[in-house]
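Recap slide: GNAT family N-acetyltransferase, sequence and predicted structure.
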Amino acid sequence: MKRAAQTPMPINIRALQARDRKPWEALYRQYADFYQSTMTDAILDRCWSWLMNPNHAVEGLVAEGENRQLLGLAHFRACPDPLIAADFGFLDDLFVRPDARGLGIGRRLISGVAALGQERKWAVLRWITADSDAQARQLYDKLAQATHWVSYDLDLQRLRG
């Protein structure tokens, strides 16, 4: 259910904090469900440990609404690009609660990551999405240019086994 025509609620985009564990976990489980990806407690624990470790590459922003309620998340990291000898930003995960979609939260989370990338002198902010995610792609097409690159995954666990 979209809430686009309602009075805008105050949204705060901020860094993920230790106090956010339970609401972050609920959001991240919904994100995994959306992409039909298996989510376990071990995956959640490891990802959370990365996000809480200031020396790990993965960072997180959240969208906080009224009463400190988390409405969305963004996970991102810097990646070196040898071809241009510069870092670029990679947006790994972006999710907004279904009942909070249409309020500009996804756009604000991407803008928050982009602002950090500008401060850090990243050359570009890059992300991928499922070609079937039409709602997200409507936003992405307004903010960024789709590329001609095709993505491949080589299952290294299967090669070992």
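The mean pLDDT is 92.
The chain has one domain: 12-146.
(End of recap.)
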